[in-house]
Amino acid sequence: MRPEMTAIAPGTLPKSSPRGSAARARLLRGLLPALSLALVLMAIAWLNPRAISYFGFNLMLNLAIPIALATIAQMFVIAGNELDLSIGTFVGFVGCVTATWLRDAPLLGILVLLGSIGVYALLGALIHLRNLPSIVVTLGMSFVWQGLAILVLPKPGGKAPDWLLSIMSFKPPYIPFPILAALIIAAVVHFGLMRTSYGVILRGSGGNAAALRRAGWSLLKTKIVLFALTGLFGVLSGMALIGITTSADANIGNGYTLLSIAGVILGGGEFVGGRVSPIGAVIGALTLALAASPLLTFMHIPPDWQVAANGAILIIVLAARVLISRRER
C-alpha cells in the first residue's frame, strides 16, 4: 500500500525559523574576528608563502605581544562603558621607567610601576565619584604621562633589563613565541573575565549598572578594579615593548591608543553594554599587527599607509558586523 502524498501549495515551502537564523547570525558575529585574521593570513600566504613559517611568524608578529596587552588594557575600560585615551602615552612612560630605573635601581622602578597602577585605580574612583567623562580625564592624563616620560628619559636611550630581554627572546619549539604568548594572554583573561563570578560583576558594571547596584555590589569598587587592571596590563605592555626594542623613547607608545581601541572593536567589543571578548580582542590585535607592516610590505605599499590600512580593515569589519546585527534582529 502506497503512503499518502500531501500536496504542497506553491510558495509554502518550510522556511528556517527566526530563532535559527538569529543563532546563525550570532555564530557568524562571534567568528568575524577569526575570519578577519584568516583573510589577512591568506593574503600574506598568497603574496609571500615563505612568510608562513616559524621564523616568518616570529618576525611578522614581533610587536604583537605589547599590542595585545595594550588592547586587553583598553578592553577592561571599555567593559565599564569608559574609554582610555592615555594608554599609549602610559605605555611610553612605562617603557622609559623600564629602560632606566627598573634596570639601574630595580626597587625604585618596581615602586614607580606599582604606583602608576595605583594612579589608574584612583582615576577610576575619580571618574565614578565625580561623574566625569572618562574621555576628558584620560585625555588630560595622556599629557601627564607624556611629560613624565620625557622627564625620566629626555632623549631616546636606556637599555632593557637582561631578564626582560631573556623573556622576550624566548624561542619555544614548534610554536612561535608571539603566538604562544597570545594564546596564554587570551586564555587567562578569558577565564578571569568570562568564567568567574566576579568577572560577570565587572562586565555587569557596563552592561546593567542599575541592576548591579540593586544587588548590593559597589560600582565604585568595580570601576577601581577595572581601571587597576587597565594599569596592570598597560605596565605589562610597556615592559614587553622594551623587551623587544631593547631601548626606550618617550614617544614609543603613542600609537597604541588608537591600536588598542581598534583591536577591541575589531575583536567584537562595543563601546556600550559591557560587551567585550578577550579572545576576540587578542585576535583583533594580531590582525592589526599583521595588516600594518607585513601585509603592506609584501604589497609594496609605503609604511605611511599603515594607519589607513588599519582604518580600512576596521571599517570593513564594522560594516559586516552591522549587516550581521540587522539579520540577527
From TrEMBL:
GO cellular component, one term: plasma membrane
Pfam families: BPD_transp_2 (PF02653)
Compartment annotation: Cell membrane
Record carries keyword Cell membrane: yes
Keyword check for Transit peptide: no
Annotated protein name in UniProt: ABC transporter permease
MF (Gene Ontology): transmembrane transporter activity
Membrane topology: Multi-pass membrane protein
Membrane-spanning ranges: 27-47, 59-78, 85-102, 108-127, 134-154, 174-193, 224-244, 256-272, 279-301, 307-324
Keywords carried by this UniProt record: Cell membrane, Membrane, Transmembrane, Transmembrane helix
Top-rank lineage group of the source organism: Bacteria
InterPro entries noted in UniProt: ABC_transp_permease (IPR001851)
